Amino acid sequence: MTIDRRGFLTALGVGGALVLTGSTAGGSVRGAVSRPAPWAGTPAGTRAPTAGPPDWSALKARLDGRLLLPADQGYDVARLGFNELYDGRMPAAVARCTSATDVQSCLDAARGHGVPIAARSGGHSYLGYSVPDDGLVMDLRPMARIEVRDDGTVDVGAGARLIEVYAGLAQAGRLLPGGSCPTVGIGGLTLGGGIGVLTRKYGLTCDRLVAAEVVTADSRVLTVSECAEPDLYWALRGGGGGNFGVVTRFTFRTEPAPPLTVFSLRFPAGATPSVVGAWQAWIADARPELWSNCVISGGTPPTCRVGGCYVGTPDALNPLLDALIAAVGTQPGTRGVQPKNYLDAMKYMAGCSTDTIAQCHPTFEGGRLTRAAFVAVSRVLTAAVDGEAVVGLMAGRVGLDLLLDSMGGAVAELAPDATAFPHRNALATAQIYANTTPAGQAAATEAVDAVRDGLAALGATGAYVNYIDATLPDWGTAYYAGNLPRLKSVAHRYDPTGVLAFPQSVANA
């Protein structure tokens, strides 16, 4: 089964919903159009070469051969990120890291030689800063072990994909709130915050982080928690991947997995403005057990669908859906409500239509990972915006989707500076997404940026760092708001010479 991001979106129409998750530790680039030159603008004086390139042969020996160079068999697949638009990126080497010791070896070998050094978890980064041209990619995918402990915590290797985490937790009857894209890595999701279909009840993924094993830029291995390296612990919870060190293992608090109910409502095209307005008021007042998104698809006229996940039974959910429909004033053309267990609900939200977990994983076809080609950007809604105006932004934009993903509930229980993730008082996040091709990339980029800027004009000026965006104005403030000065201080403390810096790293904000 091939799963792409358009598939996640269209699955909502038959009973699915989407929360896209990305990370600066992923592997795809958005924006050959007006994007920064690779590693342009890194802190002055950093990455100054010493005596030529790293000794790749010596590093390969230290890694027992798990270092792929351009001439090696397997390199052409290992170097790829998720987004097919940017398959031209050619790192100097890809290291298959199996432990924190391997990461130390990579940093020791490459530090100071003037090459970009980056970690890659799941490979879904929208800007591909973890697949640098002529740089070293530390591929953490081999570190995917999941261990659920008797006390309800779970240790997760930084290379684990979400579907693997959910499957491992489901076997123990536990859950962790996270995104619904099954092949996203737990690393990037967590470090950028981690919004998903259970956040209103259980908080962001980063809110569940108890401890992390981190390899710093100078190759120290630290165990970070509220009591050990507390500033770094604070920064890891929403400060973005790749900014402060390489996380190799996470420990999360989990919860017992209750019965869940998933739902989908598809409304007639003419009702779209009413749906957008009513949905915002409805979700703002909803109990935390209810998570929902509203997806507006561009066209003439734009169409709309609402989906989500409820912590509870259909009997408890259906009156809430009735209230939304009454507020819209139009009956949906389709209405689907299904009870699910935790794992099946997560698979449903990902658009996986079978009961085989393996079919929710990406597969190789002709030696290449099945992936997608897209551009996407984001905004954050702090308050309701005019439904007519939002729909107007999507008029005529065939092939473009605007996803409003609800926030509130448990997310808002923490202060904006309690963790590095600042958008605690948001009503929703907005993602603007378009599938495209290399030939259509410029037009798709122009379209998503226009909707992004239109939302900003309506008051939605924040942005989500896991939907990292090359052309976002004032991106440091948009991602981090008032937390940016403290984040810059933490970045300087743990990586003072910018070993891990990239164009939109905190150090460059």
Overview of the molecule:
The protein has 509 residues and is α+β, with helices and mostly antiparallel strands. It folds into three domains: 5-23 and 258-481, Vanillyl-alcohol Oxidase, Chain A, domain 3, CATH 3.40.462.20; 59-139, 2-Layer Sandwich (Uridine Diphospho-n-acetylenolpyruvylglucosamine Reductase, domain 2); 146-256 and 483-499, Uridine Diphospho-n-acetylenolpyruvylglucosamine Reductase, domain 3. It contains 15 helices and 20 strands. It has helices at 5-11, 56-62, 75-78, 100-110, 162-171, 186-192, 199-202, 230-236, 272-284, 314-328, 342-349, 387-394, 441-457, 475-480, 484-494; strands at 67-68, 93-96, 117-120, 136-139, 146-148, 153-157, 174-175, 209-215, 221-225, 246-253, 255-256, 260-267, 290-297, 303-311, 334-340, 364-365, 368-369, 374-381, 400-406, 428-435. A hairpin with a 5-residue loop joins strand 13 and strand 14 (303-311). Helix 2 (56-62) runs antiparallel to helix 4 (100-110), helix 5 (162-171) packs antiparallel against helix 11 (342-349) and helix 9 packs across helix 10 (314-328). The longest helix has 17 residues, at 441-457.
